[in-house]
Amino acid sequence: MPPLLLPASPSLSLHFAGAGAATAASSSRRAMVAVASAASRSSSSSSFDASAFEAERLRLDADARASMVTTAAGAQAEADPRAWKWKIRKRVWDVLEAEGVARNPRPVHHRIPNFDGAAAAADSLGRLDVFQNAQCVKVNPDSPQKQVRFLTLSVKYGRPIDLDEVIKVDLIVIGSVAVDPSTGARLGKGEGFAELEYGMLRYMGATDDSTMVVTTVHDKQLVDDIPVEKLLIHDVPVDIICTPTQVILTNTAIPKPQGIYWEKLSPEKLGQIRILRELKRRIEQETGTILPCGPSENLPPTAQRRKRRGR
């Protein structure tokens, strides 16, 4: 089985770890990644507490969902350029709940929705050559991708790395709220952290345009009305869609993000993610150039990770 990458919490260095060392919700998710490696087994003395990891992940997810309600409410106005995205998200969330395919945590609104058949979709992904041949897989930490993480994990331990360490990610698995099978256009839940994680990997040289992006969704999350021309430069398209009933190759022509778009990052968003602030400071010091910053925005409160006892 290939190693696993997961987003982790905002600390100064990237953390490569097994599933027990990483979780995500709102901006408490680290703008970092995590990977399990066989070599780390001998260097780690702590074991993975699966139940504690899942409980903490769900707690942070609930906090993040509460904060996203505020964000969505502020983006419903027709004049807001994000309004069209929220209309599609709400429609998909409503359909999943109304037709009885939504699964806990519920309600699925303001989440990457969990769904009936998530394990079957993950198993379809697991049978693909692109997965079987991957040496390193980055997986998001949301509920519907739990089975993907199970299939991916080969060890339960991890090790810290920094931004300069050379890694190669062979496959990215990403959660979605809605996805267009004809174009590969994708909508997440609206926080933008998946896009930032992708940008970080591109900056590190861990991925390139050939790195496949896969999503696992329910068939009812397939849509045909995501306007490609309205997507932003940092929106991440998908190459493969796995549902409980089918595998779709999108042959997407949508360009993938080329890195971190500093001019799109508001001061408030940058303030939420320590590693991005440190990276920005380092680049500015090394180049002698002040990086651009995006316009100010009102962000909802962030979910904060509780400090572990003894730390």
Q: Architecture, CATH level 2? A: 3-Layer(aba) Sandwich
Low-confidence stretches: 8-46, 301-311
Mean pLDDT across every amino acid position: 79
Helicity level: 25-40%
Which class do the helix and strand fractions yield? alpha/beta
Give the count of structural domains: 1
Order of helices and strands: EEEHHHHEHEEEEHEEEHH
Radius of gyration: 18 Å
CATH class: Alpha Beta
Largest sheet: 7 strands, mixed
Distance between the termini: 33 Å
Tell me the overall shape: globular
Q: Please count the helical segments.
A: 8
The number of E-state strands comes to 11
What portion of the residues fall into strands of 2 or more residues? Answer: 5-15%
What would the CATH topology be?
Answer: Rossmann fold
- Within CATH, the superfamily carries the name NagB/RpiA/CoA transferase-like
The largest sheet has its strands arranged as 3-1-4-6-9-10-11
